[in-house]
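::Encoded backbone::
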Amino acid sequence: MEFMLADFNLLFSCAIFFVFILLLIEGLGLIIGFSLMNALDQLTGFDLDADIDLTAGGLTSLLGWLCLNRLPMLIWLVLFLSSFGIFGYSINYFSTLIFETSLASYLVVSSALIITVYFIKLVAAPLTKILPKNESSAISNHSFVGKLAKITQGKASFQNPTEAVLQDEYHQKHYLLVAPQSKDEIFIEGTEVVLVEKNENYWLGIAFNQNLK
């Protein structure tokens, strides 16, 4: 206990403590009919197209790589915080055991964070087969046909998609990859696009003409 409460373990102890707080709130919430899990999913309000090519850059690839689109936010937070705390404790334990002193805080924290991120990537994918998928709006991607999306970064040309965001009627944001349907069109950041067809890895769209509103 003395080791866990040591100054160099303060951040990791806080992470573990926060995990217990989250679980306590969820447990008490179930008694009174409140679900923290559902509340967090509604609060974050984003989803990703599960079929996109995650080699693309931007927020789409980052969130998809971390499996934030496939796990309930509460589960993801518990996994992240508990892993961060445990790896941090482990690094400090072995450093004090071998060197008889703790390493610099920035080294321990950054190392624990990097290990945690890769651990989540390794563990989260199998968990998605056991735990329910995060679908706060219960909307199928195929219902996006005819919806309006906005290009969030970069430039999209024919067969070269870039990131776009779509907000549904539940105010949930969906991050997609979109490319022009026509060879003559180019989408730049801020362009509003009508989604017309789902390709294997991205959506095809046409520029929205505001004069036709």
